[in-house]
Amino acid sequence: MNNFKLLLSSLFVLFTCSAALGQGATIVGIVNDGNYPLPGASVMLSGTTKGVNTDFDGNFVLSNVKKGEVTLEISYIGFETKRVSINTNVKKNVGVITLVPSNQNLEEVIITSSGRRNSEARALSIQKKSMSIMNVIAADGIGKLPDRNAAETVQRIQGLSIERDQGEGRFVSVRGLPPFWASTTINGNRIPTAEEETTSRATAFDFFPSELISYVQAAKAYTPDMEADGIGGGVNFITQTAPAKRVLNVNVGGGYNEKSGEPIYNASLTYGNRSKDGKFGFIVNGSYWNRNWGTDNFEARRKGDEGVFRMELRDYNGVRITKGLNGAMEYNFTPEHKMHFRGVYGTLSDTETHYKHRVRFDKFDSGTNTARVELQNIYNELITEMIGGEIGGRHITGNGKFDWSIANYNNEFRYGGIPTEQDKSYYVVKFKQDGVGMKPEYLQNRPEAAGGAGDDRAYWKADGGLLDYNDTDALFGFFSDPSFKMDASQMSFADLELYKISIKERDNIVASLNYEHTFNDSFKIKVGTKYRDKDRRAKFEDVYYGWDEANAGTTPNLSDYSQNIIEQPGRADFLNEMGSNIQSTFGPVLSEQGMVNFWKNNKNNLSVLEGDSEILQNGGGLGRNFNVDETHLSFYGMGTLKLSDQFTVLGGLRATKTETEVNGYVWDADQSQLNAVRNVKDYWAVLPMLHVKYSPKTDLNIRFAATRSFSRPNFGDIAPGGTFISFDNEFKGGNPNLNPTFSWNFDLLGEYYFKNVGVINAGIFYKSITDPVFNDTYQGTYNGNTGVEFSTPVNGADAWIGGIELGINKRFDFLPGFLQYFGTQLNATFMDSEMTKPSGRKVSIAYQANTLFNAQLFFEKGGFNTRLAYNHKGSYAIGFGERDIDDIYYGKYNTLDFSASYQIGKNWTIFTDVNNILNNPLIYHYGKTEDRPKQVEFYGIKGSIGVKYNL
Fold it and tell me: For residue 539, with 0-12 CB atoms within 10 Å meaning exposed, 13-18 middle and 19 or more buried, which class applies?
């Protein structure tokens, strides 16, 4: 409450300053291209250095203008400069100023695509005029490539990469730093996080459709008026706003997923309009995307040493449905006073059927040369749902501009009603078959005294074993009987698992106030404040059930449910990319309905296996059951000084106070008692920032930035308890006394903008990081379980990361004839880093890839547009042990996508997309090489075709 009172006091001070400082005439207006606004257009008073840039809606306000006859000069990348003479008194509304393209080539690119909401020229203009170091892409740039969610839209941006789930983009990483060290926002506000397995502050953007996005801003260096809680940088997704005139866009398409063998459907609708007097405008756009998907995967699990104790063969099939809705309204009371409303909704429902075959090398019997195979029948629905709204206003007062907003956002993750609405969970029914013949030469029992596991393991060729990722026959050649197939009559029920997670995170109020005052043609200031009140509620339970033979009789076999067993869907082409025949060993499985029926019919025949379960009341799941209440209060002030026509300097300070209260549980083993625990931590982040922009020529910028930013500890890292995950033999605990991570950031960038829409740039960056948080990993014993991998977050020693960024976006308009319609977009980022573990071992920063690379070749003429886009991300470590072969790496990943469209007449466009042409596997591996894979996953090729209607 005290923080909110302080916020209201700030509002009073800002209004008072505005009233006291206002004088001179004010000129307002809108700049567009005849169809849509032109953001970032330069509006200058002729013969002076006084000027402003238009905002995202094309609006501009020139304050403190000398009264009398003046001439405005309006310029924009790729458009003719226009001069408008007016006579000012106190206020002057010049209305709409329309610019025309500067040459025929640009006209072909932009005018024939007038149905698109924004253009590449708009994005580059925003980027050029900004005082921050940033990259910008607009909606039409997104629409030219087959990127279907918000995360995938940014993978083409210089220095940015994404993490994938089931082949789709999910998390965003900036400059090789962890996703939770990046600030991902919608309309400038951080979105609450709610994700199944992570407890980080990184937002998974796979639930948010790209069709709702107007612009994406990737800020590499913050200015004080931005939330600076992201060491890597910030990615801001700006949703669509009211158009200048009536707009109707309809998009309908369908396609096919090669891996699942099933169809894909997508549709979107946009409608917006503005009243005759131009005061009221609105837009509504919705999106629906239904796609069948499939994934083939094998995973090699380790425990105790580098040997594999369990080989898992996973076959996924599912249906993902993404829905999105965006609405925006605005009302201009006068040219000086405007209010707006924005509402956004996004949801992802993922219904997944998953059959997991596990070969248990650790169950090898050297007397009979046999081991165990297990079958897990898995069925679940994962649901992520976000909703938010914002109301705000902009007010021109004398020589100043004041804006405010109040917003609310909610994000939730939950499981759908499988196996029942009451017991909704990640649902697993398991069977096991013992006495399966194994080739003894695959198994070794290395003693613990010699660094081994003291148990049977299969080892990789790199470690003296027979498993070989580069030889499929050797990789899967461990069965002694080449015709072996899992036998339903020999597979007895093992256990049943209900894995339950519920996460709700709410930003109950996000309120911001900003005031900008122009003193003269060379100097202006901006001050403001922002307040956020948030809470997070996380519940977790992992319950195992065994067969109650005392009351239910003999444990059943899989064959006892013959009416509910089927041949495994997708079995025939499992891992066909590797030339594997391992699918021939797969026997019958439970159908989806069979899995549901098993729980309904046998619930009373099962009893809880307390030793395997993670139940809060028994001291389990402590690291996943906790509540967070947090407030953020920020103040900032900055000044922009134009030293000359070439030099501009921006300097300022942002100060943010964070108050975090965490409520969780600890388990008293002596008393067998669960005790509540509360931890409170407050801290200030004081963040000075300096930007220098030197423009020796109109189209050349040389930028320097020295800034300080920070990242708050992840939610899971500050949980007071810990969780033992039996099936992974891992214990993960929190540390409520963690400090935030700070970074001093230095950037130097040169960029040259081509006349006909394009840019070439080169830059270097360096970050000096203090108190980085990472997991300290070691092996020990937990509740009698040996070889348990413990993972606890700690603040480490200082770290650094540096890199070089290069890029070019250029049409080949200098070439003759047909070749002039081609063009390319190339960018590359090269990075290095270092941090020191508590043990003294020097490693790179987690998630830091050495190289990121994008290449696009495009052709645009008249109504025809086609693009071929290649994306490369180098391998990087996501977790460190004490040896290279204990480090876990996310392997290098390459994608190639194709898109083409043809505009028919003024309103119709047909299009086609092909995703993941290379079908490279996603690989996690131990050590820097791929000799010891942890997980290998194939997604298959996807394609679609459709039609668009634009009015």
Answer: middle
SS3 of the chain: helix, strand, coil, percent, to 5:
10, 60, 30
pLDDT of residue 6: 52
pLDDT confidence of residue 112: 39
Strand partners, 250: 269, 949
pLDDT on residue 111: 37
Asked if 594 and 565 count as a contact pair (C-beta separation under 8 A), the reply is yes
> How do strand 730-733 and strand 785-795 relate by DSSP bridges?
parallel
Q: Tell me if 74 sits within 8 A of 46, measured CB to CB.
A: no
Dihedral sign computed on CA atoms, order 193, 194, 200, 206:
negative
The token pair at 374 is: 């297990």
For residue 116, what pLDDT is reported? Answer: 36
The pair of three-digit structure tokens given for residue 804, joined into one six-digit string: 């070089």
Q: Report long-range pairs for 659-662 (Cβ below 8 Å, ≥24 apart).
A: 659/630, 659/631, 660/628, 660/629, 660/630, 660/712, 660/718, 661/628, 661/629, 661/630, 662/626, 662/627, 662/628, 662/718, 662/719, 662/720, 662/736
Measured between alpha carbons, how far is residue 931 from residues 298, 486, 579, 923 in Å?
14, 29, 18, 11
Beta bridge partners of 332: 338
Diameter over CA atoms, the chain: 102
Tell me how far apart the alpha carbons of residues 436 and 113 are, in angstroms, rounded to a whole number.
64
End-to-end CA distance of the chain: 49
Angle at 706 between CA 700 and CA 708, to 5 degrees: 140
Residue ranges in the chain whose pLDDT is less than 50: 4, 7, 11, 14-15, 17-22, 104-118
Q: Which of 871, 731, 710 is nearest to 787 (CA)?
A: 731
Question: How many C-beta atoms surround the C-beta of residue 282 within 10 A?
Answer: 18
Q: What's the CA gap between 947 and 254, in Å, rounded?
A: 9
The rounded distance, in Å, linking the Cα atoms of 547 and 79 is 75
Burial 579-592 (b: 16+ CB within 10 A, else e): ebebbebbbbbbbe
Kindly state the tokens that stand for 669. 């083993």
Element (H, E) at 10: helix 2-21
Report d(CA 560, CA 63) in Å as an integer.
Answer: 82
Q: What is the pLDDT of residue 141?
A: 66
Q: Quote the tokens at residue 831.
A: 């990075």
Q: Using CA atoms in the order 491, 495, 496, 500, what is the torsion angle rounded to 10 degrees?
A: -140
Residue type (1 letter), 842: K
Residue type, 371: A
Scanning 346-486, the segments in alpha helix (DSSP H) are 472-475
Residue 922 CA to residue 578 CA, distance in Å, equals: 13
Buried/exposed code over 815-850 (b: 16+ C-beta within 10 A; e: otherwise): eeeeeebbbebbbbbbbebebebeeeeebbbbbbbb
* 942-950 vs 908-915, strand pairing mode: antiparallel
Cα dist from 601 to 16, 514, 561, 596, 606, whole Å: 71, 61, 11, 9, 10
Q: Which residues contact 286 (CB under 8 A, 6 or more apart)?
A: 268, 269, 323, 324, 325, 326
What is the identity of the amino acid at 202? A
What's residue 78's pLDDT? 74
Q: Which of 779, 416, 426 is nearest to 614 (CA)?
A: 426
Q: DSSP E strands: which ranges in 303-399?
A: 308-334, 337-365, 370-397
The secondary structure of 581-612, three-state, reads CHHHHCCCEECHHHHHHHHHHHHHHEEECCCC
What confidence score (pLDDT) does residue 303 get? 86
Nearest CA to 292 out of 946, 939, 951, 947 is that of 939
